[in-house]
Amino acid sequence: MSNHIANHLDAEIAKAGEQLEKLSEELYEIGEPASRELDRRLKALKVEYKALQRNYSEFQHRDHDGALALQKIHILLDHIEREESSLEHEANFLHQSNPSTMALAVRAGSHLVDLYRQGKQHLIGDRHPLGASAFVNQSADEIKAMNKHSG
What we know:
Layout: H1 3-30, H2 36-60, H3 67-96, H4 101-124, H5 140-150
């Protein structure tokens, strides 16, 4: 096998591996359950990638030309690249989709809590709603000093 072919295949296989890692990170960001089916396909693709690496390694250690083995490597590499492209397209679609109902519920709950706090602050200000106790936020020395002044 010529160095040109070997360098080209090395670069293509490394590029496919990097793309798989990028897809893994992207699917992790999407999260469950939206990415469940894509994750299953990604795991199958990783198995095919390992088979590609194994086939290429065996091909490199052969003494003869192995045109058929080289053809199989190219077919597997093309398949992996097409599947990666498909997964990336679907993952991008999921990133652009509307938020899930759970995300909407969390946002709505957070908004309601903020509105409640703003309303409470507007109505009662910084005062404690039940009044101030002589014992709240007072040290023991301050309480003794208050007893001396009142008695």
